[in-house]
Recover the amino acids of this structure.
């Protein structure tokens, strides 16, 4: 018997047969009948048709659907003028972040002639997470690896500077040097299964999430193997591995600018970690326990004072820094409810929170006065669960009402198991003073 467990599904504490989709495949009708944390107060109005009561204040529309992927899309990232997407087929694509047609897309495929003596890098290694930083891409894979991609001048047929750059794989983590340096000391080995050990620099299950430190010097990775690791981006050396960080798979990881690391797990818990002054390793600061099923998504506001968590219990929980505890703890404020199935992804920009769900919809929430929230819009159009989101201020368009100067326009990008990227525009009125 192995020591590692597969991630839990969204329904109950049962094993999931299709582990590469785990909590994303919420097909059981039992989700709709699950209690949605009735003990947690709701932060949204309880009016039966409140969305329809304010048609004059918020406007949204679908701009386009970008096609090209032939397998589920698990990650989206904005960088410069481009939107990057990564799929379970091991394919990275890039398109203009303000596309005007579904044909405005370029495929960035694995480069077959890269030296792969120390790695297994094939196009059938599903990608679970993608980060773009300057001239590099970082991708997390189901084959337990992290790959680093760098822009290349070898761009056949691409002489248009408006097109996204092409990339080649320049490193696979853990690197060969890291692996060799750990081989000869028994203290570098950890047990992964009965009678089987690996060095601590290895992830031994799907790498589910990535995050970069604010200065870009450190890469954080989380895995279904219940660990998270920290890598130095200058030489890709693994600096630390926090083993047994959770009792089950880690599905999400986010960083705050003040040094906190938050991990969300299939064990229903969210944990707070930080490297304390004078310490060499991260310590557990606190555990947030209120969800009743697998935590799939985490997101922080810009100053790190508000944490949002989404789980298979269909609720988005809102946690805020406890000012009486020097911001070292987070307290539960309430829940955002409306989705009818599992929450799979979250993104925050300004005072807006977007959530994607296994109910095939995207909801846009807005934080108002006195910690209240309102649901501004529901985007419907995906045919299958929404697995990833990106969001940005729409700086290139006047929006649906150019005569309204007291509003802001945003672009929301959503994608998931239907293999399509949808681009939405929403115009949000300014809050009344």
């Amino acid at each position: 018997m192995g020591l590692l467990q597969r991630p839990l599904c969204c329904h109950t504490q049962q094993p999931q047969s299709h582990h590469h989709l785990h909590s994303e495949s919420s097909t059981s009708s039992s989700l709709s009948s699950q209690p949605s944390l009735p003990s947690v107060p709701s932060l949204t109005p309880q009016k039966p048709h409140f969305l329809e009561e304010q048609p004059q204040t918020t406007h949204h529309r679908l701009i386009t659907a970008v096609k090209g992927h032939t397998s589920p899309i698990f990650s989206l990232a904005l960088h410069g003028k481009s939107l990057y997407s990564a799929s379970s087929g091991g394919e990275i694509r890039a398109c203009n972040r303000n596309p005007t047609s579904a044909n405005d897309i370029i495929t960035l495929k694995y480069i077959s002639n890269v030296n792969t003596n120390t790695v297994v890098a094939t196009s059938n290694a599903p990608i679970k997470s993608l980060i773009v930083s300057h001239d590099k891409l970082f991708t997390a894979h189901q084959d337990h690896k992290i790959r680093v991609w760098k822009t290349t001048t070898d761009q056949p047929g691409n002489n248009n500077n408006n097109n996204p750059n092409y990339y080649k794989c320049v490193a696979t983590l853990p690197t060969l040097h890291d692996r060799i340096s750990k081989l000869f000391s028994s203290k570098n080995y950890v047990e992964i299964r009965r009678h089987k050990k690996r060095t601590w620099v290895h992830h031994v299950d799907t790498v589910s999430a990535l995050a970069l430190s604010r200065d870009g010097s450190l890469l954080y990775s989380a895995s279904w193997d219940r660990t998270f690791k920290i890598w130095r981006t200058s030489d890709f050396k693994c600096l630390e591995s926090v083993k047994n960080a959770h009792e089950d798979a880690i599905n999400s990881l986010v960083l705050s600018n003040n040094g906190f690391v938050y991990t969300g797990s299939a064990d229903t818990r969210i944990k707070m970690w930080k490297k304390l002054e004078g310490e060499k390793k991260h310590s557990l600061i606190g555990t947030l326990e209120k969800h009743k099923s697998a935590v799939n998504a985490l997101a922080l506001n810009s100053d790190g004072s508000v944490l949002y968590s989404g789980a298979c219990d269909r609720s988005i929980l809102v946690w805020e820094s406890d000012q009486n505890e020097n911001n070292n703890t987070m307290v539960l404020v309430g829940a955002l409810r409306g989705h009818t199935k599992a929450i799979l992804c979250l993104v925050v920009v300004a005072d807006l929170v977007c959530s994607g769900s296994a109910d095939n919809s995207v909801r846009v929430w807005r934080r108002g006065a006195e910690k209240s929230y309102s649901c501004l819009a529901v985007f419907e159009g995906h045919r299958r669960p929404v697995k990833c989101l990106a969001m940005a201020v729409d700086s290139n368009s006047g929006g649906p009402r150019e005569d309204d100067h007291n509003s802001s326009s945003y672009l929301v990008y959503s994608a998931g198991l239907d293999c399509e990227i949808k681009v939405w525009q929403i115009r949000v009125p300014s809050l009344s003073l």
The helical segments are 30-33, 176-181. The longest strand covers residues 407-416. The chain has one domain: 59-151+162-397+404-427. The chain has a mean pLDDT of 81.
